[in-house]
Amino acid sequence: MKPVAFDYARPRTIADALELLDARPGAKILAGGQTLGPMLNLRLVQPELLIDITRITDLITVTETDDGVAIGACVTHASIEDGAIGGIASGHLDQVAAGIAYRAVRTRGTIGGSLTHADPAADWFAALLAFGAELEIAGTTGTRRIALDDFVKGAMETDLGPDELVTAVHIRKCGREARHGYHKICRKTGEFAEAIGAVTVEEKTGRFRLVAAGGSHAPVVFTDPSSLFRTADPLDVRSFDVDMTAAALRDAGMNADDYDLRLRAVAMQRAVKEAAQR
Amino acid sequence: MTRITLTVNGEKIERDVTPRTNLADFLREDLALTGTHVGCEHGICGACTVVIDGQIARSCITYAVTCDGAGVRTIEDFDDDPLMEKLRHAFSAEHALQCGYCTPGMLVAARDLIRRGSAGDEDAIRTGMSGNLCRCTGYVGIVKAIATVAGDHDVSREEISQADVLGPAPGPAAHDSLQNIQRDAVPPAAEKRRKERVAAPTLASPSDANVQTGEITQDGSFTKLTQTITVNHPRNAVWDLMADIEKVATCMPGVSLDGPVESNHVDGRMLVKLGPINADLKGEADIIRDPENWRGVIDGKGRDARSASLARGRVEYELAETDEGNGTLIAVSIAYSLAGPLAQFSRGAIVRDLVTRLASAFAQNLEARLEGREPDQDAQALDAGSLVFSVLWDRIRSYFARLLGRKPG
Question: Are residues B131 and B215 in the same domain?
Answer without folding.
Answer: no
